Amino acid sequence: MKSLNNISVLAICIFMLISISWAGDENGPDSLIIEKFSFDENGKAVADFVIINDQDLAAVTIPMILRGEGVAIDSVSFAGGRFEYLQMLPVTVAENKLSVVFGAIVVTEEYVAPGRGLLAKMYLSSDTAKKDISCVIDTTTVEPATLMFTKTNSASFIPTFIKGTITVEEPAKE
Fold first, then answer.
1. pTM for the predicted model, two decimal places
2. Out of 65-69, 77-81, 90-94, 125-129, which region has the weakest mean confidence (pLDDT)?
């Protein structure tokens, strides 16, 4: 009976420690969110990638795929974002312009501090001659790249990801 009580007390202590560590994460889970995504009358769009992290980061790897007919990835920019100050900001857009791998690596700079803000902007174009096109930007794996955040101790983890979706409709005729 005594050992059962010890196990119960141990289980309660472990549960409380886990609850305290979750409760301390006031921003919610570390996340990558596609927050804004809309096409203009010229068939151009900018998808804002917002990052939420609650600890210093040493690197991020972001492989994305575009699912939708008549839409293409033009480029990715870190300008104006939280990672803009880093030297290593690799971006590779696939030849078919339907997938991209981009990231950021701390070399000699300060680690990326905890917070929420713009990571990067993805510039897209659409064939406006087509109508009612559904387009989704989602995470993918482009070997060996997978969606990953890396902490300062080199431990990596997969963040929560919220994909972006937009419907491109035929532009209004004036």
1. 0.74
2. 125-129
In the chain, which ranges are continuous DSSP H helix? 2-23
Check if the beta carbon of residue 69 is closer than 8 Å to that of residue 133.
yes
Q: Biggest alpha carbon distance in the chain?
A: 82
Rounded to the nearest integer, the mean pLDDT of the chain is 76
Q: Are 92 and 100 in contact (CB under 8 A)?
A: yes
| CA trace torsion 121, 143, 134, 103 (10° rounding) | -10
Quick: pLDDT tens for 63-77. Answer: 999 887 788 999 999
Three-state DSSP string of 96-122: CCCEEEEEEECCCCCCECCEEEEEEEE
Beta-sheet pairing, 44-53 with 71-77: unpaired
Where do we find the tokens 């917002």?
50
